[in-house]
What does this fold into?
Amino acid sequence: MKHVIVTGGCGFIGSALVKQLNRHRLVPTIIDIRKPTSSLRGLEFRFKMIDVAVRNTSITKLFQNIGQTVVHLAAMHYIPECEMHPQECFRTNVYGTYNIVDLVKKSRGSRLLFASSGAVYPSSSKNLDELSELQPDSIYGETKKLAESIIQGHLNGRNKIFRLFNVYGPNDNTPHLIPSIVHQLNKGDVVNLGNLHTERDYIFISDVVSCFIKEILKPRPAPIYNIGTGVGSSAARIMSEVENIINRSIRVRTASTLLRSTDKERLVSNPRKARNDYEIKNFISLNQGLSALLNNKV
It folds into this structure.
């Protein structure tokens, strides 16, 4: 039986991953600074309330088993919050990752799956592959780049880095674009947004979790994978899709408070390597994902 540890397992991606681990008869250990939420109700897991940035006996004991798979999701990731609190972001995303890497390194036969981000790349008119230049322009992106360097410098191949692009789906309580739209629509037909024309690569949560599960069950050859769909979508396009799905008009207002100085013009992945190695025939389309989310079919 595989032993899996999930840091940040109470979060958006973590809770979806735990659900799929259970479907494969795996009962993970969750490490998080917050208590399990309703998204984990009915699932099987062990829970330890631990801050990954604090090294103590409690966390050390969890890494005494050999041959564990550690999925490191714990991070401060909402970009405006990271910009406002850079020291806290560095503490969790860099120092916390260093602690986990050191523990994995000392745990014989264990390996690390790390959730990095497309934010390590610069804006580009081309779809970005894993060999594209790393040039983050935000505190968050910089911490992920530093964390990657720590992992690559200390684990000697006992790791996998997933550069996740814009993940969306149910139970995301962070005010990212799509959850913010859904939240505002629950209150009426007026939606306040920032830049309507920047393009991002939106990937549905189940496609992301599928890659994690496949990697846990059978490691793939490459050290780094871009996890995105390869399709860029703007906020304007998302709103058009939403209007068609709910069959009603929505008034969109541009709010100056939502405009970001660090906003990239275009950030879209080239997912060819992940598509091939994880045997992905088709990603869930934006329309399919938004339909499932808006119609509560997930």
User: Anything to note?
Assistant: The first strand starts at residue 4 and ends at 7. The mean pLDDT is 95. The CA atoms of residues 186 and 294 lie 10 Å apart. The two ends are 29 Å apart (CA to CA).
